[in-house]
User: Fold this.
Amino acid sequence: MVFLIRMLVGATLVLFGLNDLMELFEVDYGSKANAFLQDMEGSGYLQEVRGGLLILCGIMFVIARWVPLALILFAPIILNILVFHAFLAPTKIAAAAALGVAQVFLAYCYWPYFRSVFVMNTPSRYGTVRRRGGGGMSRPAAASAQRPPAQRPPSAQRPPSAQRPSSAQRPSSAQRPTP
Assistant:
């Protein structure tokens, strides 16, 4: 099922992307929608960028490479298509709604790849970001680890057994026992 929907969405995106670039066929949406599309084409780049992204996402869907990235790139495009049809061409919203449902279905099927994006309070590269009482962000925990031991909170201090001996406390090679 996922394979079939992914292929259908990919082929549709490639077809409409090629139509954006080469005008293979014309679709009449009505006077307001056609005027809007003429203005978009008049910008000189918007149709080409959209067509290129549609072709790129369609190819990613068809060859099953980087499908989560294709879903991310396609999400704002399908949202714009749905809003366009809802406000400017409501009589032709069925195909756009089908693409929107397919987008949501594929995002659900590939949810494990998106799960980490929606995690709250994630550790950063520099340590855990902690909240203050007022809701603002404090410095990373790594910055507090660089403070001298006297200024560290008691919970962050190492027990004496876990501390490294300083170079003065380490035995020199002459003092080490030989096996």
User: Anything to note?
Assistant: Residues 2-118 form one domain. The CA atoms of residues 25 and 151 lie 71 Å apart. Helices lie at 2-22, 31-42, 46-63, 67-87, 93-109, 111-114, 141-145.
